[in-house]
Amino acid sequence: MAIWTSLLFVGAALAHSGVKSITVDGTAYPPFDSRIDHLLMPVRRIEWSHDIVLTTFNPIQNFTDPDLACRENAKPPLLKAPTRAGAEVTFYWTPITRMHQGPIITYLGLLPTPDTPPQQVKFFKIFEKGFDASIDRWANEWASENGDSYKVRIPSDIKSGTYILRTELIALHGNMKNLNKGALAGIQWYPYCFNLDIVGSGDAQPEGVTFPGAYKPTDPGFTFQPFMTYGNESGTEQNSKYTLPGPPLYTGKFEAPTGPRPVAKETGAYPTDLEVKYMDMLHKIERPGLNLATFVNSAWYHYKPDKESFKKYGGMVVSASKETKEIIKGLFEDIEAFKKLQAALPVPA
């Protein structure tokens, strides 16, 4: 079984997860999609853009890495989402890898100036979910079963201003006894940051933490070994002992928003004809990774891996990696043509 487990993790890079869409106060926005947007820069998004390292949706794996704030060499977005204090935000992810057991945490931090680095922003926690014993599921599994999505609410009593909304999946599988030595060991963070222009009548300015700095390797939330088995027994008893990392949740008001819903002047989506071209290229690029992610989640569904599935997965890893490279190479002319059309678009006032 150890061989098949190793195959699963060798190919996991193609099955990592990232935010594919975000709805803020009723308006949908495209993210900075690292599978294609880095090839089309500059793109107009509400998400902080970042460098692509090794693979798309690459995890951050160092407690002291500045990239823990908003990913690799993060740069501020050109847009921000108008939001009422108290509004709901829904994150939609690419298929969330079920064997990446761990929590989901969302932070909010006031951005003092447009040029303030995210590492200097004071983030306060507005949402957290770890292991839910009532359903015997980790947060990532819970979100996976909820259409790879989850919803958070913006506090209703905070001061108006531009904020960074930072959400993350934290994968603990590298702490498992059969994986906690060598290259597979350690914590994986999948953080994503978005700029919101929040308007309300509140004046609260919550204390916050910085990234890096908020987390330490000795925190119980990061030393914990999630239960994993190759049998059918439940992991509820052990996993229920999990303690979420980071500061306590903000205890202010989370009341429903008041007043009319804001209308975004621009979401970052392209005009219809260009959006069709964009999505066509994206769907081609993402196909091998999606197929792989779907297979991973069926092969390792809630503690129950299957030897034959893992064996098949070994071959899929090689072919998916090769196919992705060939697809991107084949799209070179389409991407260059798209960039010319994109450059000709008028910039909204």
Automatic annotation (TrEMBL):
A Pfam family: AA9
Keywords: Carbohydrate metabolism, Cellulose degradation, Copper, Disulfide bond, Metal-binding, Monooxygenase, Oxidoreductase, Polysaccharide degradation, Secreted, Signal
Signal peptide: 1-15
EC number(s) from the headed UniProt entry: 1.14.99.56
KW Phosphoprotein (keyword) present: no
A GO cellular component annotation in the UniProt record: extracellular region
Gene3D superfamilies for the chain: 2.70.50.70
InterPro entries: AA9 (IPR049892), AA9_LPMO (IPR005103)
Subcellular location: Secreted
An example molecular function term from Gene Ontology annotations: metal ion binding
Cofactor(s) needed by this chain: Cu(2+)
Name assigned to this protein: lytic cellulose monooxygenase (C4-dehydrogenating)
